[in-house]
C-alpha cells in the first residue's frame, strides 16, 4: 500500500489551502529544530553539502539553508507543490538565492542525477516510515555514487525489536501511532536495515532512540 503522500492532488489541495506545514505531519518547529540539532551534533559543518530526501515544504530545509554556506543544500520530493510552497512561503529572497531552484528535484524513484556535486550528508526523516523496505534499498543504490566516501545518510524508521512479533500491529509508545509490517506506517527490525545494504558500498550504524517526538528511531548508513 502506497503512502497518502502519493496522492499528489490531495497534497496540492492542502498547499492551496495554506496547509503546507500540516500536510507533511505538522510539528513544524519541534521536528525541524530537532533534525537541525541532530545533524550539527553529528558533525555537520557549514561548508558541507546536505541532501534532504523527502524535503517537503522545507521543515528542515528552511533552517539548514540559513545555517549552511550558499549552494550547500539540496532537496528532493514527490510533490512539486510542496517544494514550491516551501521555497516561496518559508524562504526569503536571501535564502532562495542560497538554495536556487536547480538545487531541488521532483522524483518518485530516488533519482539524484540533479546533484552537481557529491554530498557529505543526507537525511530522510519520516520517509521510509511510509514505504516498503525495497524503496530504502533502491534509494541507497541510487544515492551511493552521489555520496562522498565516508559520508553519512541518516534515515528514520519505526523499530520492531527482535523479541516482538513483526507481523502484528505495534503501538509506537504513547504517540498514538500504530505501525505495521505491510501497510503504512511501516515498522522494521534493524536486521531489515542490514538486509537493505547487502552487496552494497554501505555500512550500517543503528543509532536508535534520538528523541524523536513520534518515536521514530534513527539509523546511519555510511558510504565506504
Helices and strands, with pairings:
Layout: H1 8-16, H2 28-41, E1 50-53, H3 61-67, E2 73-77, H4 80-90, H5 93-98, E3 104-106, E4 119-124, H6 133-143, E5 147-159, E6 170-171, E7 178-179, E8 187-188, H7 190-196, E9 202-209, E10 217-223
Explain how this protein is built.
With 224 residues, this protein is α/β, with parallel strands linked by helices. It is 29% helix and 23% strand. A hairpin with a 7-residue loop joins β9 and β10. The two termini are 33 Å apart.
The number of helical segments is 7
- Spans of at least 5 consecutive residues whose pLDDT stays below 50 are none
* Helix/strand/pairing category: alpha/beta
**Radius of gyration over C-alpha positions, nearest whole angstrom:** 17 Å
Overview in brief:
With 224 residues, this protein is of the alpha/beta class. It has helices at residues 8-16, 28-41, 61-67, 80-90, 93-98, 133-143, 190-196; strands at residues 50-53, 73-77, 104-106, 119-124, 147-159, 170-171, 178-179, 187-188, 202-209, 217-223.
